[in-house]
Amino acid sequence: MEASEKKVTIIGIAGGTGSGKTTVVKKIVEALPPHFVAVVPLDSYYNDTTGLTDEERRQINFDHPDAFDWKLLIRQVNELRQGKAIEQPTYSYLQSNRLPETIHVEPKPVIIIEGIMTLINKKLRDMMDLKVFVDCDSDERLIRNIQRDTIDRGRTVSMVVDRYLKVLKPMHEQFIEPTKRYADIIIPQGGENVKGIKILCDYIEGLIRKER
């Protein structure tokens, strides 16, 4: 790396669905200088299902590692790290498919990769300067899922609870919870842990100052 080249800081933020990851990301973005952070949501990188029927799409387990396009995500994070802009995909839960529209993302000094399984892929993990796991009680996560999915994704309460018991809970225990061991920092109580988030933000600010 040339002396004039500035290092990009990559932060991975994982945790169960409804754990408060988005709140933690929001607080980090607010704590850093304006236009300093590019957020890369894992949810944008679900596989393109254009070749599948509606019935096949309905069978997709969105809480399994195989549901994500890891190659595209890793390639685009690398491009941001190299100072290149990307066209980030967008995904519709209602259509269970990628949308034709993309989001133009410019490279920034800090890249935050946020999603339920952000820490499960070793190649992605190895790119990170800091790995964070946002922890939260399962009953709180269920309540947040009910609130979000009934409003944003057109599901009934019984549909959400049924999906939680049959899919979310077992997938969380099998794939998400074990990635906690890869985290450098664990934030208990999710987005409500004001002190924990403040310590995290202070640490990131120090990390950036040291590297720039």
Provide the fold topology.
Blueprint: E1 9-14, H1 21-31, E2 37-41, H2 54-58, H3 70-81, E3 86-92, E4 97-105, E5 110-114, H4 122-126, E6 130-134, H5 138-152, H6 157-176, E7 185-187, H7 194-211
Task: Summarize this entry quickly.
Helix content is 41%, strand content 19%.
Task: Characterise the protein shown here.
This protein has 212 residues and is an alpha/beta fold. 41% of the residues lie in helices and 19% in strands. The chain has seven helices and seven strands, in the order βαβααβββαβααβα. The strands form two sheets. It has a five-stranded parallel sheet with strand order 2-5-1-6-7, sandwiched between helices. The radius of gyration is 17 Å and the shape is globular. The two termini are 13 Å apart. The model has no long low-confidence stretch (mean pLDDT 87).
% residues in beta strands? 15-25%
Main-sheet strand order equals 2-5-1-6-7
Extract low-pLDDT stretches: none
Order of helices and strands: EHEHHEEEHEHHEH
State the separation between the terminal residues, measured CA to CA: 13 Å
The SS-based structural class is: alpha/beta
**Helix count, per DSSP?**
7
Average pLDDT figure: 87
**Oligomerization state of this entry?**
single chain
Query: What is the percent of helical residues?
Result: 40-55%
What composes the largest sheet?
5 strands, parallel
What is the strand tally? 7
Tell me the radius of gyration: 17 Å
Give the CA-based shape.
globular
Name a few traits of the molecule:
7 strands; alpha/beta; two-stranded antiparallel sheet; 212 residues; 5-stranded parallel sheet
